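Each lists chain and fold; for instance:
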Amino acid sequence: MAALEQPPDPGAGGAGRVERIGAFERIINRLQVLQEAEIAAFVTGAEAAMAARLADHDPRSGPPGVFDTVGHAGRAAAAEIQLMLHLTGAGMLTRLERARLLHDDPQMVPTATLARTGQLTVPKIRKILDGTSGLTPEQVSGLQRAVLPQAPTQTTAQLGAAIQRFLVGLEDREVPVRRRGRAARTRAVVVQAEPDGMATLRAFLPAAAATGILAVVDEHARQCPRSDVRTMDQRRATRSPTWSCTAPAWRARAPWWRPSPARPATVMPGPPAPTGRPSPVWLPPLPAAAPSPATRSRCGST
C-alpha cells in the first residue's frame, strides 16, 4: 500500500501503470470486505452483549428496561454506523444484511475467503449472495464450487449468467417457492424523513399487492378534470392521502363482477358440483345507489 501511495515513475511503461490500477482495485475490494466484516462484528457484538446482560439480570432488581432487548441493541449499533457513514436507513439495512450473510453464515466461508483477497468486487459478492437465496446448504456449497473458480476473471454479467445456469440445472421446483417466501417475510412499509418537511413512503410488497395499490391510486388520479395540467405522478401524490384515509366514492358503484341496474343479473359459475363442473349461482341485481350531492372536484392542488 505504501508503494502505491507514491506517484508512478514517469519512465514506467504502460504495462506497469495498468498493474498499479489493478492493484488499487484489489486493495479497494479487500478494504470494502474488511469494512463489512467489521460492521457485522460490531452489530453482532452489541446483540451478544445485550443477550449476556439479560441472562445475568437479577429478577429481584426489577424488570429490564423497555429498550433492553437484543433487537434494540442491534438497531442502536446499526444507527451508530449509519451516522458515521452518512447512510440512509435503507442503505444501512442493505449493507448490514449483506455483511451478515457473507461473514456470519458458515456456509459462505469460501466466498468470504476469496473476497478477503480482493478478487471479488462488491457487485459480484451481491450476485453470489442473491444466488444462494432459497437454496439448501448442499446447493449453496455446490453453487460456490461451480462459480467461484472463474468469478475473479469474469464480469459481473458473466458471473450472473453462470449462477443462473447453475440454478436452472438444479431442477428443484421448490427453490422459487422458498425464494418468494423469504422475500415475502421481509415485506414492510417504512417512512424516511426528507428535507423541507417532506418524507418518502417506501413499501416492499408482493407484486400483486403493489400493483393493486397502484391501480387504486390511478383510479383516484383519473378523477381529476381534463383541465388539470399536472402529471399522473403529481395527481397520484395529491390523491394518495385521501384514498388511504377515507373510503373513495367510486366504491359506491357496482363492481364489474356484480350486476347493476344497467347490467341485469346474470348466471355466474359457482363452486364445483359433485360432478366436477361448476354449479351456477344466481346473483340478484344490486339496489341502485343513492345519487351523491354535487360537490366540487375532489382533486386538490399541489
